[in-house]
Amino acid sequence: xxxxxxGGVEFERQLRELLEEGVRRVGGHARSRLNQARHAALAExxxxxxxxxxxxxxxxxxxxxxxxxxxxxAVAAAVLVAFVLWPxxxxxxxxxxxxxxATVTDLDLLADHDGMELVQGxxxxxYEWAMAQAESDPAGQSSGAAPQGQSHAxxxxxxxxxxNSG
Amino acid sequence: xxxxxxxxxxxxxxxxxxxxxxLSQFLASxxxxxxxxxQAALRHEDDALDAVQDAxxxxxxxxxQRPAEEWKPLFYRILENRIRDMQRRRTVRNRVMSWxxxxxxxxxxxxxxxxxxxxxxxxxxxxxxLEEAMSALENALARLPRRQRQAFxxxxxxxxxxxxxxxxxxxxxxxxxxxxxxxxxTLRAQLGELHT
Lengths: 166, 196
Hints:
Strand content of chain B: under 5%
Largest interface: A-B, 43 and 49 residues
Order of helices and strands of chain A: HHHHHHH
Largest sheet of chain B: 2 strands, antiparallel
Shape of chain A: elongated
Structural class of chain A: mainly alpha
Largest sheet of chain A: none
Oligomer: heterodimer
């Protein structure tokens, strides 16, 4: 090392002296707080099961804690408002909406006497027809005209109704 | 091999009273220096006192049963963690405060006007020089990188050897030497020759 070793050692000695002087000048208030902190720490060793307490916190620390509360509240409120006001992209379907829609359909079905007959009296033919309809016209744009040779009239679950309509 | 005594306390005495006395002696021996080290990093007396108090409590709570010769590096490691937590919290707080419309400095203790009042007594030249040198050193220490400051203060002020400093800093002995040497170089460049 090419640095001036004597100068380096002397400089370190000077720094050490300065630091020691700083230690000697620590005031009574700080020494008193350190003394209290030491006793609090020793009391903790005597009661290992106790919850941690910091009994000699400074007034500044307590003040900062009080200051943080409204600040944290303001941040939380801002996040909530931002979330509510943020434009959400429309989703294709919401399960909750579908569920409510299904509930409304069920209610309609229960209230409709003919519908109940359809459900209770049908032997599955209606559903087969409905499936065939959906397969032949997937876009749902049926004109209502059945192709020749293929009957698209829904089979009535009630044979008597067919006779009446014919 | 753990030391069988600390100060005048015989740690082979299995009573918790002996260990408590040893811990008390240990804490009393380091508390003021620890406070100065915390103050050099935090530049705030109350924050430094809080950091030292937390470190004392943590050591007493978690490590008082460890061998006494481990206490010092452990204590300074805990203290450094507390200092870093406080510095981080302070950074976040300053960022939040800069966004708030009101500027709250209510956390700052009100200065005691009597204590702050300038003394009419003329300062001796020697004392004035010392004050200036100490102030310059504190400013230079505050500007040092964290690891350099830590290595420098633990070695110079607390008198830890390289191995203990490495333990306290959680790094290798080689790193301690490097940090310490760079700290000295930086301080010398900033302070020049001191008049002490």
